[in-house]
């Protein structure tokens, strides 16, 4: 009976260690933004991890190919939903632009934000809802633990 009890205790401790370890790994994984070309987080998906210096910059989404071997096309003006929660990784701050080279309208989307439909977004400095659906051509992704750029962008207030 003692032996069975000690085996069960060892098993329980091993399981608890695995659960704690996997939880810590997902909370501290590589920071990631996620993008989909369908509303409601549907269809093709682009994961963009930050690089070792704490950010990733994509100046032209027309050079970012779709992530399947049989797909043709690119990600320019194709994004319809997005997430800055990290998707099981660490969250990120995101700056999106309507033109390549970080030009056009800029919107800052803070970490831990999920937008299932990029229509009807309320942003600072504009008195009416805007749409970024199929209108993103470049973006910057930053780890929340690094110094953030001070960019003149509209800030996401809410999305309907």
Question: Would you give an account of this structure?
Answer:
With 160 residues, the chain is α+β, with helices and mostly antiparallel strands. It has one helix at residues 2-27; strands at 32-38, 42-49, 55-58, 81-83, 92-99, 103-109, 114-115, 121-123, 138-143, 154-159. The longest helix is centred in the N-terminal third of the chain and has 26 residues, at 2-27.
Note the main sheet.
6 strands, mixed
* Chain-averaged pLDDT: 85
How large a portion of the residues is in β-strands, by DSSP E?
25-35%
Helix content range of the residues, please?
A: 10-25%
Q: Write down how many β-strands occur, each being a DSSP E stretch of 2 or more residues.
A: 10
H and E string: HEEEEEEEEEE
Structural class: alpha+beta
Radius of gyration, Cα only, in angstroms?
20 Å
Shape: globular
Low-pLDDT regions = 4-27
Distance between the amino and carboxyl termini: 61 Å
Number of helices: 1
Strand order of the largest sheet: 3-9-5-6-10-8
